[in-house]
Write a structure and sequence with these properties.
The complex is a heterodimer of chains A (374) and B (174).
Chain A (H helix, E strand, L loop, with lengths): L1 H16 L4 H6 L8 H11 L12 H14 L7 H11 L8 H4 L3 H20 L2 H11 L8 H8 L6 H12 L14 H22 L7 H18 L1 H22 L9 H77 L5 H9 L3 H12 L3
Chain B lengths: L5 H5 L2 H4 L10 E5 L2 E3 L3 E2 L10 E4 L6 E8 L13 E10 L8 E4 L10 E10 L20 H7 L5 E10 L8
Parallel strand pairs in B: 3-9
Antiparallel strand pairs in B: 1-2, 1-4, 5-6, 5-8, 6-7, 8-9
Classes of the chains: A mainly alpha (374), B mainly beta (174).
GO biological process, one term (chain A): abscisic acid-activated signaling pathway
Subcellular location (chain A): Nucleus
InterPro entries (chain A): bZIP (IPR004827), BZIP46-like (IPR043452), bZIP_sf (IPR046347)
């Protein structure tokens, strides 16, 4: 089981290098709610521990070890809090590691974060020193930071930076309501994911008899996340979370004694997750496209109306001119008739000529005068 | 001779700018030597100066001419509807708009986005407007022809002409 999963995670680790490693992260939110200290002890306890200290690992190695660990480890305590955290983490999009970040060691990243965090906190507090005092109290050391927060803040999750930033802000200062987190949660997909957690959790727990670690802390950390999820997702998320928790727990217990290796679930769920992950973007894209389509249709309708209006105007113009023309022709006929009566000696042709070419007579006169005197 | 109103209905000038009316006065407008028929396209650069608007009617009657753009700033989001371009009052019948008094100075079409309609509406006045009786609109954007007509008791329009205009590519601009 362990081996198999290790292989799976390696494969995925390779994929993650290319930027598509969201699946494990999404499938089990629980591991990300551990602090570094807990995570390290977990790895050690499992025997799969890496000899290295986290601080000296580079980010790539850290991620890899996380994936390995979470593959082989399931939290029976993956309950409401974990689910919510999962929602929170997934919302960030895929777990991608920027090139520049992957070669940095965890310690370096941590230092960077601390440097970034202090002015930010200070600004948030309004006062200069207040923020710096609070900051260390909340996150005194790297060891006490949760993996999730670390990853998010380090910028590992890059796809949805705005949401990530909002989440970090929310996690750092829980009473402050996040302004806007796109509501991309979709309850049906939510259930699908819980299923994934269930199965993995049950399978792993059954196979390894692993006991949950650090329940208190994760739930603490995750309550923040659940708050975020609740606010972000609006009314959709809250109810499903509760029901599915019950369902999940019972399912976990029921399946717990099955030793069937159900580990390779990631692929089908990956699909679901990918759908959901890009769900936010897709939804946005679809919405935008729809808006554009509506606008386009309106514009097309206007264009048609314009054309039709112009055509009608021209037709009306044609009609008017035709009538005018007929009227004029009638008038001409009348005039010709009159001329015939007044000058009976004039032939019809001459009259026509006179009408059509009123200067004809004049021309003739002119010619005569030209030829006359000389 | 009165024009047909159908093009105005189809072009949604009747409805968005004025109510259904029966034309009783003939009005022709021309930018330079180019006559304006409903729905024709006029380049903004050709409309920098006020058009020659000739009206029929008796010499003793006075008319008010209003030109607005119901599609500002963009036809799909006309948040400034209507944008006022011109008001001329006290135009004697049988003459042209230059014989009236310009209440709001002419401003040529400047469509930024999309194809805009520019509507010339003619009202018959009940009496001559003297200086105190007029309430000039505060601003060009968000002008309302109907409200203006109602306020000055102009009733229904007697003639309407509209043309379209579209932003010109920079290289074609004179």
């Amino acid at each position: 089981m362990d081996l198999k999963d290790g292989g799976g995670s390696e494969r995925r680790g390779a994929a993650a290098g290319a930027g598509a490693g969201a699946a494990p992260l999404a499938r089990q939110g629980s591991i990300y709610s551990l602090t570094f200290d807990e995570f390290q002890s977990t790895l050690g306890g499992m025997g799969g521990g890496l000899g290295k200290d986290f601080g000296s690992m580079n980010m790539d190695e850290l991620l890899r070890s996380i994936w390995t660990a979470e593959e082989s480890q399931a939290m029976a305590s993956a309950s409401a809090a974990a689910a919510a955290a999962e929602g929170g983490l997934q919302r960030q999009g895929s777990l991608t590691l920027p090139r520049t970040l992957s070669v940095k060691t965890v310690d370096e990243v941590w230092r960077d974060l601390e440097r970034e965090a202090s002015p930010g906190a200070a600004a948030a507090d309004g006062g200069g020193g207040g923020g710096e005092q609070q900051q260390p109290r909340r996150q005194p050391t790297l060891g006490e930071m949760t993996l999730e927060e670390f990853l998010v803040r380090a910028g590992v999750v890059r796809e949805n930076t705005a949401a990530a930033a909002a989440m970090v802000a929310a996690a750092a200062a829980p009473p402050v309501a996040p302004r806007s987190i796109p509501a991309v949660n979709n309850s049906s997909i939510f259930f699908g994911n819980y299923g994934g957690v269930n199965d993995a959790a049950a399978a792993a727990a059954g196979a390894m008899g692993f006991s949950p670690v650090g329940i208190g802390d994760p739930t603490m950390g995750n309550r923040l996340m659940s708050g975020v999820a609740g606010i972000g997702g609006g009314a959709i998320t809250v109810a499903p979370v509760d029901t599915s928790v019950g369902q999940m727990d019972s399912a976990g217990k029921g399946d717990g004694d099955l030793s069937s290796p159900m580990a390779p679930v990631p692929y089908p769920f990956e699909g679901v997750i990918r759908g959901r992950r890009s769900g936010g973007n897709v939804e946005k894209v679809v919405e935008r496209r729809q808006r554009r389509m509506i606008k386009n249709r309106e514009s097309a309708a206007r264009s048609r109306a314009r054309k039709q209006a112009y055509t009608m105007e021209l037709e009306a113009e044609v009609q008017k001119l035709k009538e005018q023309n007929m009227e004029l022709q009638k008038k001409q006929e009348e005039i010709m008739e009159m001329q015939k009566n007044f000058f009976p000696e004039m032939q019809k042709n001459q009259v026509l000529e006179a009408v059509n070419n009123p200067y004809g007579q004049k021309k003739r006169c002119l010619r005569r005068t030209l030829t006359g005197p000389w | 001779m009165a024009r047909f109103v159908d093009p105005l209905v189809v072009g949604r000038v009747i409805g968005e700018v004025v109510d259904l009316f029966v034309p009783s006065i003939s009005m022709t407008a021309a930018y330079g030597d180019r006559d304006i028929s409903n729905g024709c396209l006029v380049r903004p650069s050709a409309a920098d100066y006020p058009p020659l608007v000739r009206i029929s009617g008796r010499r003793n009657d006075l008319y008010t001419l209003i030109m607005t753009d119901p599609d500002a700033p963009s036809p799909s989001d006309p948040s400034m509807r209507e944008f006022l371009h011109w008001i001329v009052v006290n135009i004697p019948g049988g003459t042209d708009a230059s014989k009236g008094e310009e209440m709001v100075e002419y401003m040529g079409p400047r469509p930024t986005v999309g194809i805009h309609r520019y509507v010339l509406v003619l009202y018959e006045q009940k009496a001559r407007f003297v200086d105190g009786a007029l309430m000039p609109p505060a601003d060009r954007p968000n002008f309302n022809t109907r409200a203006f007509a109602a306020y000055h008791q102009l009733g229904l329009p007697t003639a309407v002409v509209h043309f379209n205009s579209q932003r010109e590519p920079a290289n074609r601009r004179r």
